[in-house]
Design goal:
Layout lengths: L8 E18 L5 E11 L2 E8 L11 E12 L2 E5 L5 E4 L29
Parallel strand pairs: 3-5
Antiparallel strand pairs: 1-2, 1-4, 2-3, 4-5, 4-6
Length: about 120
Amino acid sequence: MKELQPGTRVTMHLKVESVKITRERKRYEGTINQTAECIVGDEHGCAMMIAKDNQLDVVKEGGYITIRNAHANVVREHMRIEIDRWAKVEKSADTIEKVKSVNLSNKLSDIEYELVPVGK
């Protein structure tokens, strides 16, 4: 979490602290779209991650995940990790050292960011 900054793409090994389904929508063909806000982190801090549909099969509470090329984006003045079409989320390999604990006192998604015009 140390290298997480707004507007960057990151690859990290994280622990999933919580998963909260925020939206379920039934499509016309009968499938259900789900969106969840997940708290993920490591020893350095934690942040909000948005997971959708098939990603929720991998992102389980208490599980260990690896995110590759995920986008740290600012949404409503707060940073979120988004798994877009160029990113990938997968269960951490057994050979990777597991995150021992999540530092919930350093919530990077609670920091407010403001867009400041430059050069005017």
